[in-house]
Amino acid sequence: MIARGLKGITCTETKMSFIDGEQGRLIYRGYDAADLAQTHSFEEVAYLLWYGTLPNQEQLIELKKQFQASRKLPDNMKSIIASVPHSHDMLSVLRTALSSVELTDENQATITDAISLTSLTPAIIAYRQSLQQDIAFPEERSDLDHVAYYLYMITGKEPSKAYVQALETYMILTMEHGLNASTFSARVTASTESDIASAITSAVGTMKGPLHGGAPSGVIELLNESVQQEDIREFIREKVQQGEKLMGFGHRVYKTWDPRAQAIKKILQQQKQEDDWFDLALNVEEASINVLEELKPGRNLYTNVEFYAAAILRELTIPTNLFTATFTASRMVGWTAHVMEQLEDNTIFRPSAEYVGPFYS
Ligand code: ACO
C-alpha cells in the first residue's frame, strides 16, 4: 500500500510536542501550548523546547543576553541579502541568507546556533525591507526582548505593549507543531548529518508553499474577495464546487478546531474595538464551515491556525508580504529543536517509492 504524503505514518519519536487532533489540544514538552502562550514569554518557551525544562530566573536572563548578543547582521550577510533578485519574496531572501549563517561547528547542531538563527531572522527581514523600500535600516537594539525587537525591526517604531503581547501569543502558538512539512524537511536534511543551517534552509523552502506557511496571504485574498460579494456563502460554495481549496481551512492532523486558531481568535475578540474586517472573518468562517460540511461531509474541515494568523497579523499592521516570514521567525525555534533531537538518535530518512514506469529489457 502506498501512503501518499506519508499520511498516517509514524516515522520517529519526539519529546517536542503532542498534537491531539481529535480533541484539539497542543502540548509542548508536557505543557499546554495555549496556556504557555498566556503565561510565558517567547524566550521562556524557546528555552523549554531547546532544553526540555522551563528556565529559572538566572537561566532566562542568560538566554535573553545570548539572544541580544546575536542580533548583529554581519556585512557578508547584508551583501547576500542585497544580491537576491528584487522580484524574490521574503521567504526566498530568508532561505538564502539563513543558509550563510556562521555556525559554531558544522559537525554538530548547538543551542548557540539555534539562538543565532532565531536572533538574526528579524534583522534579515528588516534589512531586505529597507533595501526594497529605500528606507533606513533600524539600528539593532539590545534592550528589547525578542518579540518586541521583531516588531521594532519590521516597523522601525517602538512597539506598544498590546501589540507585543498579541504577537508574542501568536509566535508562541506557532513555534512548534510536530512533524509538519517544514519540520520534516529539516529533520530529513539533518538525518544525512548535514549541518543545522542546511536543515533550516530546507525548512524555509518548504514553509514557503501555499499549502503550508504560505496560506495566510491566501486567507487575505479570500477575505478581500468575500467583502465584494452579496452572498458570501454562495461565493464560497462556487469555489469549493470548482475544486478550490479554501485557504485557512482543513488540517492533516486536526479533525476538529485547531486550538491555535481558537486561542488567536480569543485574543482578537478581547482586543476588538470596532473592526469590520474581523466581523467579515467571522462571517467567512461560518459560511465556509457550513459549505464544507455540506459539500465535503465527514472530512471535518475547520479553520486552521493560518486563518486567524492572517487576522491577527493584519491587526498588528504587519504587511501581508511578511506574514509567512513572521511565521518563519517563530517556527525557527521548533525547527532547530527538532534538528537537535534528530541528531541525538539519528537514522537517515529514506522511504521507498513504488516503480510504475516501463521496463524495456
Ligand atoms: N478547502 C476545501 N476542501 C478541502 C480543504 C480546503 N481548505 N482542505 C481539504 N479539503 C478537502 C479535499 O478536497 C479532500 O476532499 P475529497 O475527499 O473530496 O478529495 C478532503 O478535504 C481531504 O483533503 P486533503 O487535501 O487530502 O487533506 P490533507 O490532510 O492532505 O491536507 C491541508 C491538509 C494541506 C492543510 C489541506 O486541508 C489544505 O490544502 N488546506 C488549505 C491550505 C491551508 O490552509 N494550509 C495551512 C495548513 S496549517 C499549516 O500548515 C501551518
From TrEMBL:
Q: In which pathway does it act?
A: Carbohydrate metabolism; tricarboxylic acid cycle
GO aspect biological process, one term: carbohydrate metabolic process
Which terms are listed as keywords in the entry? Transferase
Q: Which domain of life is it from?
A: Bacteria
Q: Which residues form the active site?
A: 251, 306
Q: Spell out the molecular function terms from Gene Ontology.
A: citrate synthase activity
Q: Which InterPro entries match?
A: Citrate_synth-like_lrg_a-sub, Citrate_synth-like_sm_a-sub, Citrate_synthase, Citrate_synthase_AS, Citrate_synthase_bac-typ, Citrate_synthase_sf
User: Carries keyword Transcription regulation?
Assistant: no
Similarity-based family: Belongs to the citrate synthase family.
Q: What is this protein called?
A: Citrate synthase
Which organism is this entry from? Pontibacillus yanchengensis Y32
